[in-house]
Amino acid sequence: MRTWTIATEAPDSPAATALWRAYYTEVSDRWFAREYGPGHSTPADDLERGIASETGSDLAPPTGTLLVGRCAGVAAGTVGLRLLDATRAELTRVYVRKEARGTGGARLLLEAAEDTARGLGVRRLVLDTRLDLVEARALYARHGYAEVPAHNRGPYAEVWYAKDLETTGTRAYA
């Protein structure tokens, strides 16, 4: 098992920007392959527009937080918290690079996000994802997230999850 460290980072940092690009490219390419068949990937112009359209500025205080995970010292994953109100936040940008998958990073990122959320007074986490992102859906189910009715109308949102957070206990990640 490789060592992970997780810390808050600015959404426009070089590491966060590179991870956003990798995340967006992967999920966009999967959508294009699903919609248009194997071998289809996101057209370059569409990819650049999509990446540029979401700066992540809402994942910086006071509206949110972005955590970057490093595996063996290399930026390998992210998770964002977007504050919705005083007690609810949305998980977003949950991602681990392919080469770091299977090392426990996704679990650690979720736990760190939950602990960070508790520290911000959040009592309920919500998220949306696509039906074809089966790995993500399995991760959420394994960690206590339950399917719930839609809480937003995102263009790619096909299934919604929520988890009520316990109010005690935090873990150390560094």
From TrEMBL:
It comes from Streptomyces triticagri. Residues 1-166 form the N-acetyltransferase domain. One of its GO terms (molecular function) is acyltransferase activity, transferring groups other than amino-acyl groups. Keywords: Acyltransferase, Transferase. InterPro entries: Acyl_CoA_acyltransferase, Bact_Acetyltransf, GNAT_dom. Gene3D superfamilies: 3.40.630.30. This is GNAT family N-acetyltransferase. The keyword Metal-binding does not apply.
